[in-house]
Design a protein that fits this description.
Layout lengths: L1 H32 L2 H36 L7 H22 L1 H11 L2 H34 L1
Helix pairs in contact: 1-2, 1-5, 2-3, 2-4, 2-5, 3-5, 4-5
Length: 149
């Protein structure tokens, strides 16, 4: 259980921490100092690297979370564990959508030099990452408070 918890927390730190950094630090800095072509190219390159790690984090989080639920008794696991699983699955679905739809559109737009389409794709990514960041922070809160009850 301790190894599963460590893997779980490692995945959460990479994913939620990465979203926090991108949303709260990188985005405002990029907007302040880069023109759209450079900013969109930066985001495409940054996301291509980050998303590789998110896929690993998602796999770690899901596998370790399911393992811990099984160890906690499966259907008899605490309610907070099921709430975390439900929110986590929603987050994973949102991430998959971002990866397979607006991120791909961003890549095509950057390759074509279509900065308007790239900006629209990046705007959609920003909104969905913001939503996932909020869900991730709620899940961390559920994990912390749920374990104390």
């Amino acid at each position: 259980m301790d190894i599963a918890r460590w893997l779980h927390l490692l995945g959460v730190a990479v994913w939620v921490g990465g979203m926090f950094f991108a949303y709260m630090a990188l985005r405002p800095a990029a907007v302040a100092v880069l023109e759209p072509p450079l900013r969109l190219s930066l985001w495409h390159q940054t996301l291509s690297r980050f998303f590789r790690w998110v896929w690993v984090a998602v796999a770690l989080i899901l596998a370790s979370g399911l393992h811990m639920i099984a160890v906690l008794g499966g259907h008899g696991a605490p309610v907070y564990a099921w709430v975390m699983l439900a929110i986590g699955i929603v987050m994973m679905l949102i991430f998959a959508h971002v990866f397979f739809a607006p991120y791909r559109r961003l890549g095509r737009a950057v390759a074509a030099g279509d900065w308007k389409a790239g900006g629209a794709a990046l705007g959609q990514i920003r909104k969905l990452v913001g939503l996932n960041l909020i869900l991730g922070l709620i899940t961390i809160t559920v994990a912390t408070v749920g374990r104390m009850l």
